[in-house]
Amino acid sequence: MSTPSQHAAGNLRSIVNMLLAVMFFALMDAVLKTLSGHYPPLQIACLRGATALPLVMAWIQWRRGWHTLRQLRWSLHILRGCLGITMLALFTRGVRELPLSATYTLFFIAPMLITALSVPVLKERVPRAHWWAIAAGFGGVLVALRPSGEDLQAGFVTVGGLAVLAAALCYAVAAVAGRLVSRTDSSESMILTMMVFMTVGGGLLAAPHWVPVSIEHAGLLLALAVTGFLGQLTINEAFRHGQASAVAPFEYTALAWGVGLDWLVWQTLPASHTWLGAAIIVGSGLYLVRREKRISEVHANAEHP
Fold this sequence. Notes:
Blueprint: H1 4-35, H2 41-63, H3 74-97, H4 100-107, H5 110-117, H6 128-145, H7 159-181, H8 187-206, H9 218-241, H10 244-247, H11 254-266, H12 272-303
């Protein structure tokens, strides 16, 4: 049985990894935003997979993990691959139009969608209080979108804003599918198949409108590969050693990175309705995490009186 000190050490290690993961993914998204002005979204999805694929293969070789790829649940890997391509293309379309901070505000609805989807797919029970928190989170999205009256043009009810919400839905479905496939398949298989699908599937879909890749963007593509790969490794480590309820809240530090990068790179700051919507969404998410922690503690105490 783990001691409290072991739990604390594991949580601290996981929190550090989560903070690193958020940093790497925020930097990757800044690269995506920069590249989105030069290449179509589907081509960027392909480039994301193709640039990271050599690093993923080297990592599997280092871990001597090729034997874990012998038996795969192909139906779920194909579903995750299709959703991954769609999600990244939609996210790129959104981040091209919106500031990073606004994009993250809308994308924060994904954890609530995962909770909602866990009922019909994973057969999990969601307490009534959780549904109120999910409803509040959707209310926060509406505040951020500001979809009424004279505010329409100032809000995010645009193709970009709706693309981010659709990307969040794809991410949530892929995450639920990932929970299912992780019961039988390895982390190596999940990461490798996703990169292969992005490379091949994204490339085939992008082929009709392919734009020649400029040598001037070699540095950005290298940064895309390294930040995406390191982000994937650190987020896996974040949830491997610590309690999810202790680690998950630190995902919201992405908003700070979004605001900082928006200011440093693009000299823009979020509007007031973005801050308000973000506060509602983040508050709802933190409430869900806290409730989950309490429920887990109650179950643990019941099992070990």
